[in-house]
Write a structure and sequence with these properties.
The protein contains 13 helices and 19 strands. With 422 residues, the protein is an alpha/beta fold. Helix 4 crosses helix 7, helix 7 packs parallel to helix 8 and helix 8 packs parallel to helix 10. It starts with a strand and ends with a strand.
Length: 422
Amino acid sequence: MKVLLKNGHIISAGYDKEQLWDIYIEDGIIEEIAQGIERDGVRVVDVGGNMILPGLIDMNCTIGDPGYEYIENIETASRAAARGGFTTITCQPNTDPVIDDKTVVEYIVSKSKAKALVNIYPYGSISKDCKGEEMADIGGMCDAGIVGISDGNEFIDEAYFLRNAMRYAKMFDLPVITHCEDRGLSAQGVMNEGYTAACLGLFGMPREAEEVVVARNLILAQATRTRLHIAHLSTGGSVQLIREAKERYGGISCETNPHYFLLTEEAVQDYNTYAKVNPPLRTDADVELIIKGIVDKTIDVIASGHSPTGRSDKDKEFDCAVYGISALETAFSLSYTRLVETGLITIEELVCLMSEKPAEILKLYNKGRIAVGKDADLIVVDTEKWFHVDPAHFASKAQFSPFANKRVKGSVLFTMVGGKLV
């Protein structure tokens, strides 16, 4: 397929974003970038002076397939991703069966090629059944196509086991992605520990539950010289620990999600289960420090944190409701509105956080930038018009959001994956 995109402001290194550029694409690869390109026998798409960005890459996404397709499946997750501007997503291994051997990896890879509108790369589980007891077949999964190993949002209690897993992952140059939570400390907690939890009569999850595990994992990564990626930071203390660790060792990266720099524990008022996430929403001070970590580049990546669940599992008493958030279709617009529209960072820096840096960490060398020879994974966005978040129109099966009716900018007009408009 031959496609010519015309009259767009390219947001990627090496191009003056004030100029209008054309991009010629053939067989899914960017062949030429210039002004005034003319070609015969091609599909021409005039983007009307809007911005052309490299497709976003999501490092923290949960898909229910296999086992929980009633919550989300590969097809619906990929449609939601495309709507939100993500041309590549990863999937956590806590499926049923768990992604802990090459057979399950091969299933996801083959089904994604057949059903998905976007690229899907699985994470393999660090341990069998995500139980943190016996090492999974990391080598076999690596051969089958995983791009990292993860604990699937389950806490690995034994430091000895995690250290061995890190050493093993290093042999395959895979990043180790960890959810940092000491379940002994978080115990029965369902939201941030503090004044708001006390007022609501709910058990709290202290910040120490995250921070002590962040500290432990940073020490283990430095000792083993392993590439460690810490998922969904929620506290200012975690950001500071990572800031200090990066001064000692360069193999560390981390991410946060939009809800951790846009919402606080106050969103749980009135027992709003749509704001029940893990790790929990924290305080105003934590939000400020998360944003500071983004601005000073301590935080490398903004991921969606998409963790779908059924409405019936949310429409319960707060203690009984399931953790989760539908985030693929809102992550970019929320981030653009909070960070770029307010002048905290530039659009180029947001692209780095949501595309270039994830591609670098996951070693997806043909993605993350707009350049000749790269994959034609592109999005066109309108950053001028305001619109309201409407979960009723989500492509995801999880049609709920704590950001319902929020006014935002950064609308994804269309998404191209491998040169195909999806």
